[in-house]
From TrEMBL:
Cofactor(s) essential for the protein: Zn(2+)
Keywords, in A-Z order: Hydrolase, Metal-binding, Zinc
Ranges of residues in domain Succinylglutamate desuccinylase/Aspartoacylase catalytic: 46-226
CDD domains per the UniProt record, alphabetical: M14_ASTE_ASPA-like (cd06251)
Superkingdom of source: Archaea
Molecular function via GO: hydrolase activity, acting on carbon-nitrogen (but not peptide) bonds, in linear amides; hydrolase activity, acting on ester bonds; metal ion binding
Protein name: Succinylglutamate desuccinylase/aspartoacylase family protein
Originating organism: Halarchaeum salinum
Pfam families: AstE_AspA_cat
Length: 339
């Protein structure tokens, strides 16, 4: 992009230009193109190229509205650099309103960086990776919880990589879960390929949740401020923050099948020994109480009230005492100053 234009196989987008395009990444059984909706916003001023993507799991909708809003509704003035907006990555899954690609239930988010000669999923991944991910300097990939569960807004990022850590902090979430992206994931492949990328998790599948969408838009503005893409916007400090390592989190799983009453919500603080939920049989004659094994925050909880033994009930991350105090001050409206 020496001349400032964003180029892809079918064309180029000049500085100061915004283009909505439909990019063919596969073909249907009828031989018609499967087209990826893409908006390229190339700012009048030079700067980094950032991708924003959503619905790589086809039923995870909150991020679609975040990416569409950035693509269509944000003012052009003062944009330094280029935004590559990909509101629906998994087009066949989105049309079917399901998580995976409908053919053999393949997970598009385990197919990266893909292959031009592989499965249909591999080929889709390879095309969209080469055209719209690889040319970017940074990326944000938006997800929700899997169907039947919900989670609070949080970021997942490989904090061992300083470029990824900078991006993760810039988003301004309270919780960052540290770890490399799974093998074959868009995040993992992009980070390995030289495009520092984070995932943002928020809410539940099959819904637009306005509160999360608005907070994520604040996060995007904060990231763009960090990299001087939108120089007028301030970088956001969330009031308190915890970076959670692999050994500071656990999934509480059901040890009995039954009907679940969830007593806590996503984002709630629980103390060791607090009852998080109960599991009862159909007659309410047996009750299993599920308790928190340590002080922490419920990042994700079950919404669907039925479980088999082994099903996840909630995702709990450990908080230390200073973070708990900051969390409580934030809840009381007395936010601490930025350290
Ligand atoms: Zn997902």
């Amino acid at each position: 992009m020496a001349d400032g234009a964003f180029t892809y196989a079918d064309g180029r987008v000049e500085p100061g230009e915004t283009r909505n395009l439909r990019y063919a990444i596969s073909e249907t059984y009828l031989g018609e193109p499967v087209q990826l909706p893409v908006t390229i916003r190339n700012g009048a001023q030079p700067g980094p190229t950032v991708f924003l993507s959503a619905a790589i799991h086809g039923d995870e909708l909150n991020g679609i509205e975040v990416v569409r809003t950035v693509a269509q509704d944000w003012p052009d003035a003062n944009l330094h650099g280029t935004l590559v907006c990909l509101p629906v990555l998994n087009v066949p899954g989105f049309i079917a309103q399901q998580r995976y690609l409908p053919v053999y239930d393949r997970d598009l988010n385990r197919s990266f960086p893909g292959s031009e000669t592989g499965t249909s999923a591999d080929r889709m991944a390879a095309r969209l990776y080469a055209e719209f991910i690889e040319p970017c300097d940074y990326g944000l990939d938006f997800h929700t919880s899997t169907r039947g569960r919900t989670n609070m807004l949080h970021v997942r990022a490989d904090m061992d990589d300083p470029d990824v850590a900078r991006l993760a902090r810039a988003f301004g979430s309270n919780v960052i879960i540290d770890g490399a992206g799974p093998s074959g994931s868009l995040r993992g492949a992009a980070c390995e390929g030289g495009t520092p990328t984070i995932t943002v998790e928020m809410g539940q599948a099959h819904r637009f949740e306005r509160g999360f969408i608005d907070r994520a838009l604040d996060g995007v503005a904060s990231v763009l401020a960090e990299y001087d893409c939108h120089p007028a916007e301030p970088v956001r400090w969330p009031g308190w923050r915890t970076v959670v390592s692999r050994d500071q989190k656990t999934w509480l799983r059901a040890d009995a099948g039954g009907i679940v009453e969830m007593l806590q919500d996503r984002g709630d603080l629980v103390r060791e020994g607090d009852v998080v939920c109960t599991i009862t049989n159909p007659f309410k004659t047996e009750t299993v109480r599920v308790t928190a094994p340590f002080d922490g925050l419920l990042v994700g909880v079950l919404e669907n009230p039925v479980v088999y033994p082994g099903n996840p009930l909630c995702h709990l991350v450990e908080l230390d005492e200073p973070t708990i105090r900051a969390y409580e001050r934030a809840r009381n409206g007395t936010l601490p100053k930025r350290p």
